[in-house]
Write a structure and sequence with these properties.
The protein is rod-shaped. It has 2 domains: 15-67, no CATH class; 71-143, no CATH class. The protein has a 5-stranded mixed beta sheet with strand order 5-6-7-8-9. A 4-stranded antiparallel beta sheet has the order 1-2-3-4, with no helix packed on it. The chain has helices at 60-67, 72-91; strands at residues 15-20, 25-35, 38-44, 50-52, 98-99, 111-114, 118-125, 130-135, 138-143. The protein is an alpha+beta fold. The termini are far apart. Bound molecules: zinc ion. Zinc ion binds at residues 20, 22-23, 44, 46-47, 49. The site of zinc ion has 7 residues, from loops.
Length: 147
Amino acid sequence: MAEFPLYGPPKVGGDILAYCSKCQGEFSHVVVSMIDKKPARVQCKMCKGNHNFKRIGDTKTRSISRTSSPSAAPRKQTLLVQDYWQQLMDLQKGKPLKPYSPKQAYLKQDVINHNTFGVGIVEEVRIDKKIVVIFKAGEKVLVHSLG
Ligand SMILES: [Zn+2]
């Protein structure tokens, strides 16, 4: 019975180590029902929740997909940039579009039209002949006034 080293063979009403998704770990459970000499339903002694019997190995795939969820964060950021870009566009409404060229000099809040990135607003003019432009796709640093 290597499978149940701590508590011996499972029986209804007996203790068993099982995975509780609520408590996020393996804790002592009480066996509620059995199927084929294996625990089917168990009750968590920590949260008193009833759930299907699970061992930690059964949940591996699920916990991996859960830990990989930070990939949702960059998507959120892109949304924020889009919102910010929209706000800036609303503020500069009616301003003439300046086609982007590295030779041209730009000022803060100029609305420029870039061949690749589209319409953007100059957020910052740096002293090293660079401008920080907010495009819908995100922030870009471009060179300017090289002419
Ligand atoms: Zn629990």
